[in-house]
Amino acid sequence: MKFIKYLGIILIIFLCNIKNSFSLIEVDITRGNLNPLPIAVSPLSQNKKSKDIFEKKLNIIDIGSEISGVIENNLKQSGLFNPLNKDAFLQKPDIAHLKPRFEDWSLIKAQALITGNVAIESDKLKVEFRLWDVLAGREMLALAFTTVPNNWRRVGHIITDKVYERLTGEKGYFDTRIIYVSEEGPKTQRIKKLAIMDQDGFNTKYLTLGNELVLTPRFNPTNQMVTYLSYFKNLPRVYLLDIETGIQEVVGDFPGMTFAPRFSPDGKKIIMSFAKDGNSDIYTMDLENRIVERITNHPSIDTSPSYSPDSKFITFNSDRSGYQQIYVMNSDGSNVKRISFGKGLYGTPVWSPRGDLIAFTKLHKGKFYIGVMRTDGKGERLLTENFYQEAPSWAPNGRVLIFYRETKTNDKGEGFSAKLWSIDLTGYNERMVSTEMDASDPSWSSLLSN
Amino acid sequence: MYKSLFISSSFHIGVIMLSIFTLPFIAKKPIDVPPLVSVELIEIGTFTNIPYAPKAKKIIEKAKKKNEKLISEQAPPKKVKKEENKKINLEKKIEKIEELAPKKSPTPKNEIKKVKKEKLQSISLPNQKNEKVQFEEEKDQKPSKEKEKNKDLKKITETKKPEITDDEVKQVSEFEKKELFDPNNIAALIDKSKEDFGETNKKSNKITQSQDKSMNLSKLTLGEEDALKAQIFGCWSIPLGLPYNENLLVRIKLKLKPDGTLIKTEILDHARMNMPGQGFYKVLAESALRAIQLCQPLKVPTSGYERWKNLQLNFDAREMLGG
Question: A87: domain range?
Answer without folding.
Answer: 37-168
